[in-house]
Amino acid sequence: MSLIDFLKSRLFFKHLLLAIVLTIVIVYLIIFSLSFYTHHGEFYTVPDFRGKQPDELKVYAEENGFDFVVVDSLYDAKLPKGSVILQDPLPNSKVKHSRTMYLTVVSSEPEKVSMPNLIDLSLRQTISLLETYGLQIGSLEYIPDMAKNAVLKQKYKGVEIETGKPIRKGSKIDLVLGQGTGGDKMTVPFLLGKKQSEVMKILRASSLNIGTEVFEDSKDTVHARVYKQSPAYGAGRLINMGQSINVWYRSDKKVNFNELIKNYKYDSTANESDNF
After folding, report:
1. What's the fold here for domain 44-106?
2. What is the model's pTM?
């Protein structure tokens, strides 16, 4: 039988039809098995894991078939060690079964950085560099030296610290700076009504230290404002570089600071007028 005769025969069409049916069945089985394997159409709502501890996640993983992978850790002294602070996917996201959850947890130890070299930098440059490294300015000590406001020594907990030495992020670095040749004095800054963070910036910019801090309405840095300072502000009042200023805080929910500042300036002006 020739090829043309075979293609026209009933046997050929019978085999062709059988092949088409088998192909359809195989494709259907593949699609069905993939749908079953991938749980097509089944979605789960991701819970909020933030604040959870590893033991709690382990129980959830066993019950729901999810995997958890810790991809990063951050230090925060205010949060429980090991607890989750970030997650991917985010809470309330829709995911499929067996999805891997990527977590960032609270580290048990602060991250460390290499101590930068601050020697010969100005105070302003030093503040900027320490912020870049995640370190803080500690106390300022001034000694006679012609290099005014230049860093002469860098200390950690009262001891000089070498450049490159590992140190915890957030640590306070004390500075020894040049006083200059003229024995310069600084004007007492006006701190009334300022937040704690604003006070620190003003004092550092004025080459002064923070002294005693008293929070009379609990330590609420959100609402706390300075309502008293010592030495007090006064027109032309000068103090030595590196001297400390003590401050008292009250909540702006309990004190009308606009009225307080207005009356203080009025009293200061009146006092100045009385001197003439």
Report:
1. Trypsin Inhibitor V; Chain A (3.30.10)
2. 0.57
